Amino acid sequence: MNDMSNPVIIKGGIGDSPKRTEDHRFLSGKGRYTDDINRPGQAYAYFKRSDVAHGVIKSIDTTAAAAMPGVVAIYTGEDIAKAGIGGVPCGWQLHSKDGSPMVEPPHPILAQGKVRYVGDAIAMVIAETTEQAKDAAEALVIDIETLPAVSEMRAATAPGAALVHDAAAGNICFDWHIGDKAAVDAAFATAFKIAKIDVVNNRLIPNPMEPRAAIGDFDQSSGEHTLYTTSQNPHVIRLLMGAFVLQIPEHKLRVVAPDVGGGFGAKIFHYIEEAAVTWAAAKLNRPVKWTCERGEAFITDAHGRDHITHAELAMAEDGKFLGLRVNTMANMGAYLSTFAPSVPTYLSATLLAGVYTTPAIYGEVKAIFTNTVPVDAYRGAGRPETTFLLERLVDVAAKEMGMDRVAIRRRNFIPIDAYPYQTPVALMYDSGNHEATLARCMEIADWNGFEARRAAAAQRGKLRGIGMSTYLEACGIAPSAVAGALGARAGLYEVANVRVHPTGSVTVFTGTHSHGQGHETTFAQLVADQLGVPFESVEVVHGDTAKIPFGMGTYGSRSLAVGGSAMVKAMDKIIAKGKKIAAHLMEAAVDDIEFKDGKFTVTGTDKSKSFAEIAITAYVPHNYPIEEVEPGLDETAFYDPKNFTYPGGCHICEVEIDPETGVVQLIAFTAVDDIGRVINPMIVHGQVHGGVTQGIGQALLEHAIYDETGQLLSGSLMDYTMPRADNIVNIHVGTESTMCTHNPLGAKGVGEVGAIGSPPAVINAVVDALRDYGVTHVDMPATAQKIWSIINAGINAG
Ligand code: MCN
């Protein structure tokens, strides 16, 4: 195996930027997405969904619809209940601070008795074509008695509010806490100054380019069920759907997630449609296909963020942070989606230390049910919320103390020699160098030259502002031990199978899933580098439970740090076996064989065997000690990390505001991220660009708005503004490499850093631009309308 500390970059190896293997397929229209798959004799499903946010289903009359042309079957919640099918489960179990378990109401795959959000599926209509299924759905006669709805968290928790679930008093799912309240109260009692902020983290709608789709298929002769689905997580879907919903044993249930056109978190979860088509296909003994429409995606894909937080920071006279107190309300929507409880808790509150040495921290999280689409992880999941809160609060604290924004950060940074650093909120950070990323980012962004640019902009009648965020996040999810302690119902390790073929080419099977991140390229680089085989002779297979032993899927920027480490572990086994074969062929002791650059060499001699020679010997074992070494070269490894990886960095944004219109124009964006060892710099830059673009979208444009009756007002791309090219500037990307100390690659995740670090940098810049107006905070998104109102009212919009 090549030495990881070796800075030499081999062609197609670690540190090189070969063009993406998968792109030829995608760019030539050869990608095979779920909707491209058609099974012989398939029928088409259409879901009739509730158009009211809350109501009692009094009756469903299917007679007229069933008589419509092409209709094959119509199923309602009653049919599902009769079939004994369970609800879609949640993957987390949290307890409130009084020790009581969170309220986990059943989430049936078709509504039973009540509808709870606009988009809740009431009936599945299956017909020969989608159009026929849609026409028949129109003919369903559904009588719903509308009930008062709650769409906003404060309204949902007000006395007398309508209950989304009778079991959840006050609409509270759980009331959780972390940290030491007494220590924080003591810190506040000695504070020189206290900075306070109220922050709304706006609700987002994911909108991956490929809408979701699912095909159920059933082979009556073998009793095997197959689900083709747009998932980031095929094994977890098999586990949840097989074990909890349909009770199909794993060996009879195959889940295939082929090419997936973006997920951004929204395709991690187990959705009701996946179970519905799998069940219906078996019942009808015919494949059933469902493809989501864009408008339908707005009201069925899990939404992201939607937190309301109040935070207070106690400071000493020298600007040192003494204590942090945080109170968050997190919207869960109408049902608990697969990972929803983990987002404001395990993924958010455990990061409240940020990059600072705050000695006492206490956080409370109330999770609230509302009559809205379920809310779950969206790129960054919990970490953007905490980063936004902290980095806005630190800017407010600087103002409160009369200190420079950079100086107050530097005063409180966790120093490099304090690593590993135990935070007061569960996590032990392994590595980081905040001063280095800050200094480099400030230099590239020319932070110190800003005031001259601001003065020049003022001459042109523009308000110019600069903002930064210095952040750290926990990804590479997850150490099973930490996940388990914080409520996960399953471990979060990863699996790799490395299969060396007789001629020395290699197929790697990984339990992670690629839906845009370029794994077929970067994982091949990893294998090429470690086994010394050509990059072109490595194939990466993912997304099929029938091919890959097991896996925990892709989210939380875990694929390289956890999935890649599993590959290294499996390759270690390959090399150990290869050494035994080489020792036999060269009549040497196993301990005398070393492996480097694709060659097994007898130490201190020029006797060597290539990797390909060892591979062929493993499969064609003439004169081979079969009693000692079994034939074949094919190894599997499970890797459970000891800790998360902790990427960190500094993002700086510069904006100009036109006071006449309130339009915020991005002028420059710089991101310097510390992600440990970089496998493919080009792909890493692309990941940062994508993430920052999402963060800019959240900061300036995107907002899912519900009215008080639970109707989604921003339910199409006409009303919900995604970032476009003219909203973005050229993003300067730099990387720093403080190696992760506990995985064999030294690598940290990169997939979410852009979306985590950027929103506070943008809003800090906007607030800075408005500094002459006495503005201390602007909630996201900073739309032209909002900024114009602030400027014209001359008040803090809050
Ligand atoms: N990489 C690298 N060197 C590093 C870290 C990563 O070369 N030090 C490479 C990896 O090998 C991989 C890519 O960068 O090719 C991202 O790796 P990683 O950080 O491990 O993240 P994941 O592959 O696990 O991807 C998940 C992450 C998340 S959580 C979301 S959400 C997300 C994202 O990445 N969704 C995406 N990036 C996305 N990119 C696209 N195009 N589409 C999505 O839906």
How would you concisely characterize the structure shown here?
The chain is an alpha+beta fold. 27% of the residues lie in helices and 22% in strands.
Structure description:
The protein is an alpha+beta fold. Among the domains are: about 25-30 and about 495-640, Aldehyde Oxidoreductase, domain 4 (2-Layer Sandwich); about 40-90 and about 100-150 and about 210-300, Alpha-Beta Complex (Aldehyde Oxidoreductase, domain 3); about 425-475 and about 645-798, Aldehyde Oxidoreductase, domain 4, CATH 3.30.365. Helices cover about 25% and strands about 20% of the residues. It has 20 helices and 28 strands. The strands form 7 sheets. Strands 3-5-1-12-9-10-11 form a 7-stranded mixed β-sheet, with helices on both faces. It has a 5-stranded mixed β-sheet with strand order 7-15-14-13-8. Strand 19 (about 495-500) and strand 20 (about 505-510) form a beta hairpin. The model has no long low-confidence stretch (mean pLDDT about 95). It binds pterin cytosine dinucleotide. Pterin cytosine dinucleotide (MCN) binds near residues 263, 560, 690 and 747. It comes from Acidiphilium rubrum. This is Carbon-monoxide dehydrogenase large subunit. InterPro entries: Ald_Oxase/Xan_DH_a/b, Ald_Oxase/Xan_DH_a/b_sf, Ald_Oxase/xanthine_DH-like, AldOxase/xan_DH_MoCoBD1, AldOxase/xan_DH_MoCoBD2, AldOxase/xan_DH_Mopterin-bd_sf. Keywords: Molybdenum, Oxidoreductase. GO terms for molecular function: iron ion binding; oxidoreductase activity.
